[in-house]
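Duplicate of earlier report; Tyrosine-protein phosphatase input re-posted below.
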Amino acid sequence: MIDIHSHILPGIDDGASTLKDSLEMARAAVDDGMDTIIATPHHQNGKYTNVSDEIMDQVAEFNIQLEKNQIPLTVLPGQETRIYGDFIEGLRSKEVLTLNNQGSYVFVEFPSDSVPRYTSKLLFDIQVEGYQPIIVHPERNREIIQHPDILYNLVKKGAFTQVTAASVTGRFGKNIKKFSHQLIEANLTHLIASDAHNTDSRGFCMSEAYEEIRESYGSSIVYLFTDNAEFVVNGEVLASDSPEQVRKKKKFMGIF
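Output:
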């Protein structure tokens, strides 16, 4: 199994603090069925700056440590970049790193409570530059929860999205779980990933999420998500169905 979103590298963001923590996360990932993980440290989120060259070096060193400790896991380079005005310049200068450095897919993170007004234009510009944007954890964005047509319009214009495994299983609360399932039902998400930060409060639970999806929607949807994770790693075209609008729902309160 492949996990395309994690904060497993030691000491560079709010994920693993030490090498020991990173190795514990690696063992937990293997126990949960993973053999490949993309490390996606935060970048340009107002607190952390992790440029592509530094990430590549840290991933190479961490894979050496995994081999030394006989942990059967491969870690690939990636980055979780907060949306910002100079995003395109970051891609051109190679400060922003595509997933597995394939030159195809790039994570785009929104602030937790809003979607900037320039988002649609920026995601279009990313595609014009030859990249494919993947919006991370939209199910936890307050504005998207309140106005899901925002996400529908972005997906309709070519953006992809990734929902967090813990959101699917209800670890972020029943309302976010409900919204996550609505996104799956409306073909508004294309990938499931852990966004793991540690082995306690923000663990992997990928196998649990896939089992929940299998029970709710059948094995074909699980295969779609797992195949898409492999496509991301290889820089291949993602499978997707036509997006639909989320059915009208009651306003969610007190979820953050």
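Confidence is low (pLDDT under 50) at residues 252-256.

Merging into the original ticket.
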